[in-house]
Design brief:
This protein has a single domain, classed as Rossmann fold. Helices cover 42% and strands 18% of the residues. The protein has a 4-stranded parallel beta sheet, sandwiched between helices.
């Protein structure tokens, strides 16, 4: 908690950009501090990857994955945006990380 507000980090596939925005707004209006992804590599921010060689691409993705774990460190819990029940490998890793560090885990869909 920060100043009486729960801090929640959003997790899920970046293909669900619209759902990320909807959940971010809802959770904020419910009185939470919301930490989201820095970019939507699977839906809308593909220009980020244009012209990157494979080594740079790999290092950048690794950095982004690590940054998201640090965002989980800052939070009281995570909120998984699992549209249609979809949870990919990165999100599965983030859920395991959150649970291992005693963070509350909530899901958009059960």
């Amino acid at each position: 908690m920060v100043g009486g507000y729960n801090v929640i980090t959003l997790c899920g596939s970046t293909r669900f950009k619209d759902e990320f925005y909807e959940v971010q707004k809802r959770l904020t209006l419910e009185g939470n501090i919301v930490i989201s992804v820095g970019l939507f590599g699977h839906s809308g921010d593909s220009e980020v990857w244009d012209g990157m060689d494979e080594g740079t691409l790999s290092k950048t993705k690794e950095m982004l994955d690590d940054m998201h774990k640090r965002k989980i460190d800052l939070a009281d819990g995570i909120y998984v945006i699992n549209v249609g029940g979809y949870i990919g490998d990165s999100t599965r890793s983030e859920i395991a990380y959150a649970k291992a560090h005693g963070k509350k885990v909530e899901y958009l869909e059960k």
